[in-house]
Amino acid sequence: MELLEKVQRKATMMIQRLQPLSYEERLRELGLFSLENRRLRGRLLAAFQYLKGACRKDGENIFSRACCDSTRSNMFKLREGRFRLDVRKKFFTMRVVKHWIRLAREVVEAPSLVIFGARLDGALSNLV
Length: 128
Prior knowledge:
This protein is mainly alpha-helical. The protein has 6 helices and 2 strands.
């Protein structure tokens, strides 16, 4: 467990009425995310920017999309690549793809980053 997560655990324990609850229940009660979910949220926001073209110069070919005929939920399905060499450059994509695939259509098809962030928060709150 990282230092930041330990600090968050102790800070939530300082609230008297939340002391008998588990850590996850305290986070849910306070409307907070765990450190892991905050990192995931940041990665998904970055992926959204790459896919919508906001970061065209840096990430033009960073993701490959799955064929639209085989998708059932959202139209922006991503495909996991197979890599032997140069794995370090692909870590970001490998961490994001498995979570991106599970997002609902209304989250992925958001018209702006702000709306995507709000919808993503709703989707991630179910994971806490």
